[in-house]
Design goal:
The longest helix has 6 residues. It is globular, with a radius of gyration of 19 Å. The strands form five sheets. Strands 17, 18, 19, 20 and 21 form a five-stranded antiparallel beta sheet that branches. It is 2% helix and 46% strand. The protein has one helix and 21 strands.
Length: 305
C-alpha cells in the first residue's frame, strides 16, 4: 500500500487529532491499484505523553477517490473527497463519535439542477468549513459549464460555495463568481472559512485569465444563502497572486497568498503576503510576510495536471 498523499488534519473538541489522506492499495501481483480515502484518529494528541502508536487508521472509501479534506464541529467530523472514478462528485462522510466510525451522507453537488450538470466531471474542490454555532457545513469548489466545454477543458470559470444545514444530508450550492469564458478559477485550491464569533462565511480563490492572475474574496452574512460581489484582494507589488487561504475570527478576516510583481513565468520572484480586513473587504491592508523570497520561477497551479 502506498499512502500519505493529499493529507488534511483537524482537532475535535476533546483534543483528538483527526486526519484524512489518500492511500493506494496495490494487489499482490502489482497489476492494479485503487486510490482510496483513509480516516485517521489520534486520541489525546494534545497531551504531553502522546505518541503516534495511539493513532488508528481505516479506509472509509475504496472506490477511486482523490483530494480529501476534513473539518470538525465539536465531536462531529466531516471528510469530503472527489469520486475520481465516477463523475468527480464531492462525496461527504460524517463521524458523530470523534472520528471512530464514519458514514456517508450526501454530496455537495447532487440535486442542484444546472449546478450539478456544470460540476459533474467538471470541478475541483477546496476544503470544508464548519460553524460551531449554527452547525452548518460549507464546501467550496470551482466548476465549468455544460455544452462544448464539458469535459473538454479544465478552464473551470465558476466558483460555488455549497452549504448544508442538516449535517450533510442535503446541500445547496450558491454561485459565488462567474468568471469569463475560458478563464479558470480551478487553481489549487479555492478556500472557505467561517468566523465562529459572527457566523460570517468567507471564500477566496485565484483566477487565471488574459487580464492577469489575482486573488478574489467574497463573503456571506446569511449562512451562505447569498454572497457579496467578489473583490480583488492583492495589490502592487503583488501584481500576480496565487495559492490563497483564508481564516476569520471576531470580525477580522485574513487572506494569505503568494505574490509576485510580474507574471507566473520562469523569472517570477515570489513572496508570501497577508491581506487583512475588518470591514468585510471594503478595505484590505496588505503586508509582506516572508523576510525573503520563498520561490523563484513558474508555480504549477493544477497539481499533477
Amino acid at each position: 500500500m502506498i499512502g500519505g498523499g493529499d493529507a488534511s488534519i483537524a482537532f475535535d473538541s476533546s483534543g483528538n487529532l483527526v486526519a484524512t489522506t489518500i492511500v493506494i492499495p496495490i494487489n499482490q501481483p502489482f497489476r492494479a491499484a485503487q486510490i482510496s480515502v483513509a480516516a485517521i484518529r489520534c486520541p489525546g494528541a494534545t497531551s504531553d505523553d502522546f505518541t503516534t502508536a495511539d493513532c488508528a487508521a481505516r479506509i472509509i472509501d475504496a472506490a477511486g477517490n482523490d483530494r480529501p479534506w476534513i473539518a470538525t464541529d465539536g465531536s462531529t467530523a466531516y471528510i469530503s473527497y472527489h469520486d475520481a472514478a465516477n463523475g468527480a462528485l464531492v462525496r461527504v462522510q460524517r463521524s458523530d463519535d470523534d472520528g471512530i466510525t464514519w458514514k456517508r451522507v450526501s454530496n455537495a453537488l447532487t440535486g442542484a439542477g444546472r449546478t450539478t450538470g456544470n460540476s459533474t466531471f467538471n470541478n475541483i474542490s477546496g476544503p470544508l468549513a464548519t460553524d460551531p454555532v449554527s452547525h452548518n457545513v460549507y464546501s467550496i469548489f470551482a466548476a465549468g459549464q455544460t455544452g462544448i466545454l464539458k469535459a473538454k477543458t479544465a478552464a473551470w470559470n465558476d466558483v460555488y460555495v455549497s452549504h448544508s444545514t442538516d449535517g450533510g444530508a442535503h446541500w445547496a450550492p450558491v454561485k459565488v463568481y462567474a468568471g469569463p469564458l475560458l478563464s479558470t478559477n480551478a487553481n489549487v485550491f479555492p478556500s472557505v472559512a467561517v468566523d465562529s464569533t459572527t457566523g460570517g462565511v468567507y471564500a477566496t480563490w485565484s483566477n487565471a485569465s488574459a487580464t492577469g492572475t489575482n486573488v478574489y474574496f467574497s463573503y456571506s452574512t446569511d449562512d451562505g444563502a447569498t454572497r457579496s460581489t467578489p473583490l480583488i484582494v492583492n495589490s502592487a507589488p503583488a501584481n500576480t497572486a496565487l495559492f490563497p487561504w483564508v481564516a476569520a475570527y471576531n470580525g477580522v478576516v485574513e487572506v494569505a497568498y503568494y505574490g509576485t510583481g510580474g507574471v507566473n513565468d520562469s523569472s517570477a520572484v515570489w513572496n508570501t503576503y497577508l491581506a487583512q480586513t475588518s470591514d468585510n473587504g471594503s478595505t484590505f491592508t496588505q503586508s509582506v510576510v516572508s523576510s525573503s523570497s520563498n520561490h523563484t520561477g513558474v508555480i504549477c497551479t493544477e497539481g499533477v495536471g
